[in-house]
Amino acid sequence: MARKCFISFKTEDVDYKNAIQNDLDVDMIDKSLNEAIDSDDEEYIMQQIRENYLADSTVTIHLIGAHSAENLGSEEQKFIKRELQASLYNGENNPRSGILGVVLPSAQSQIYKNGILCKCGNVISVVNMEDDTTIKEFHRNFLIKPNSNCHWTEDDRYCVLVTWEDFVKDPEKYIELAFSKREHPIAEKVTVRP
């Protein structure tokens, strides 16, 4: 089933957005903003994005590249932050969207680290999720504090994370994983504005 997807991205990563829209064989209803809103008023721009693009989308695809981190000095993340906040918000006329983080090649080595042997005996993948690699709205909802496990499991995460390489092989699989998180018990622990 086609899901209504909004793509949140930095201008530097527009080629990846275009690839999703034009090159991938993905069954989705594209709710993305394709032309800039003609205004200098940030509040008006976000109101238009919320009302015309995010309000009825069901999955936000967040492209995570080298310019998507919280701490990048002079680069502002105001639109991505607010797009994710609107996507995470669960209101009467704006149900929460699933969040799919797609790690682009420019950020992959900073986010994905080697696996380690956990004290429970499992080898677990290590991902570097912090202000230096992505924005708070994503990483605080990716690594939600586990209850009793010695490490995070898929049940302890609201946001879904995938590399660009894996995403392009089966985009609908990952979109559906993010969509299903909307009804998962972890959705009750989402933080909209960390």
Topology record:
Elements: E1 3-8, H1 14-22, E2 28-30, H2 42-54, E3 59-64, H3 78-88, E4 98-103, H4 105-111, E5 112-117, E6 123-127, H5 136-142, E7 160-163, H6 164-169, H7 171-180
Parallel strand pairs: 1-2, 1-3, 3-4, 4-7
Antiparallel strand pairs: 5-6
How does this structure look, described?
With 194 residues, the chain is of the alpha/beta class. The protein is built from 7 helices and 7 strands. It has helices at 14-22, 42-54, 78-88, 105-111, 136-142, 164-169, 171-180, and strands spanning 3-8, 28-30, 59-64, 98-103, 112-117, 123-127, 160-163. The strands form 2 sheets. The chain has a 5-stranded parallel sheet with strand order 2-1-3-4-7, with helices on both faces. A two-stranded antiparallel ribbon has the order 5-6. Helix 3 (78-88) links the parallel strand 3 (59-64) and strand 4 (98-103). The radius of gyration is 16 Å and the shape is globular.
